[in-house]
Design goal:
- The chain is an alpha/beta fold and 409 residues long.
- The longest helix is centred in the middle third of the chain and has 24 residues.
- It is globular and about 70 Å long.
- The structure holds pyridoxal-5'-phosphate.
Length: 409
């Protein structure tokens, strides 16, 4: 597996480019941009890094990428991983280098950052609805010919076409279909067909197909229950896909699905690519949904993303306090879990402090000791950090700037 990944030199080159773009010194005496990525940390043990620190275990991460890619390939579809999970152009490039069609993004700012850092195959799954965002998206499309964006209302489609016309371009668009959860998307069937035909007819838009993301299916516990829900949740979009095909529309894209349904989505007729995000890292939220062969734990993908934290207080009975609270772990549930230990729980509800409570602990911690946590929900955790330390056998092999961190517009 390692051979097919970018070499360490390539990782480091990527690091240097992105860090320079991340931070601009404002005086001659300021730190140089290179200091943001401290290359003296390459080769050191992750246990010697200052904490709290976000780490990715490369062996697990690479295996996760391979499992996803091998599975979708053997099922006759593609993957187009969601970059909202990692916000890291280095990871996006790795995913593409290992067979992904391209990436998805959630926000126009994320799309811009990915493009600035050399990622060109971008499908933005959230529609841009305001004139400001539409203008940004069209500016991006002018430079990035493979940028595709979503729409789900007639008014929005017309705004997109006008904005594209103002820049003298024809923009690629997919219609987002609501699987029934009413978060985003147009109703399947006739409303979706009418919108697709409108997009197809507008002079400055190029209709490319459909999206349908059923978030409610992803975390259903138990493989068969999840599979039933996934197929049912996508059935109306599949029928709409068939109707659009019969109407002669260009159905190049039928994208959706995620980490929970990646090995079921190919059963939806016409489906082209899985937008899974969390599979590269995993988290405590996904760990409990169960796999085909294991009802309790989702074993398809290994947890790779961890936070190393230091114990600050250990003198009180039954508990210890760490330096990783809500600002390092979020307050998402389920809470983080302590790697390799049992009989203790971890909470990160307090801004600056994490709390370990001992019930029947496999060990206890002293002040100054470090421990490692599997993250709660990976996407918002990543958004709290400037960089990810990529480690192998606990040694830092690369430092990946999270260049789109905080890019939430
Ligand atoms: C539109 C869309 N596609 C894909 C995903 C990826 O999901 P997951 O991280 O469960 O793989 C999400 C996550 O919320 C999403 O909103």
């Amino acid at each position: 597996m390692t051979d097919s990944f970018l070499s360490r030199r390539q990782f480091l080159q990527g690091t240097a480019v992105t860090s320079a773009a991340l931070w601009t010194p404002n005086s001659a005496t300021a730190r140089t941009a290179n200091n943001l990525t401290n290359e003296t940390e390459i080769g050191v043990s992750k246990w010697d890094l200052d904490t709290p620190v976000l780490c990715v275990d490369l062996d697990n991460f690479e295996q996760n990428v391979k499992t996803m890619q091998d599975t979708v390939t053997s099922n006759g579809i593609d993957c187009r991983p969601h970059a909202k999970t990692h916000k890291c152009p280095t990871i996006a490039r790795l995913q593409i280098a290992n067979g992904a069609l391209g990436i998805c993004t959630a926000k126009v700012s994320e799309s811009e950052i990915m493009f600035e850092h050399g990622v060109e195959q971008i499908l933005q799954t959230t529609a841009n609805v305001t004139p400001t965002k539409i203008k940004r998206a069209m500016n991006l499309r002018r430079q990035c010919s493979s940028f595709v964006q979503a729409t789900y209302t007639e008014q929005n489609a017309r705004m997109l076409s006008e904005a594209a016309a103002a820049l003298g371009i024809v923009a690629d668009v997919v219609v987002d279909i609501d699987p029934g959860g009413h978060r985003t998307g147009i109703t399947a069937g006739q409303p979706a067909l009418a919108l697709a035909q409108l997009v197809d007819s507008l002079p400055n838009l190029n209709f490319q197909g459909i999206l349908c993301y059923d978030g409610g299916a992803q975390h259903v516990s138990g493989f068969e229950a999840r599979r039933t829900r996934a197929i049912e949740g996508m059935s109306q979009a599949a029928e709409t896909y068939a109707v659009m095909t019969r109407a002669g529309l260009n159905m190049k894209i039928f994208s959706g699905g995620g980490t929970g349904t990646y090995n079921m989505d190919h059963e939806t007729p016409g489906f082209t690519d899985v937008q899974s995000g969390s599979y590269i890292f995993m988290d405590t939220s996904y760990r409990s949904i169960g796999s085909r062969d294991n009802n309790e734990i989702y074993t398809d993908f290994a947890p790779s993303l961890t936070i190393v934290t230091t114990v600050l207080t250990s003198q009180y009975e039954g508990r210890a306090t760490t330096d990783a609270g809500a600002k390092s772990c979020t307050i998402n549930r389920p809470w983080p879990s302590v790697v390799g230990e049992t009989g203790m729980s971890y909470t990160s509800g307090s801004d600056e402090f994490g709390t370990i409570r001992y019930e029947n602990p496999s060990r206890t911690y002293q002040t100054g000791e470090t421990l490692e946590l599997v993250v709660s929900h990976c996407d918002p955790v990543v958004n709290l950090y400037d960089r990810i330390y990529a480690t192998r056998n606990d040694q830092v092999e690369a430092i990946w700037p999270i260049a789109a961190r905080g890019k939430n517009q």
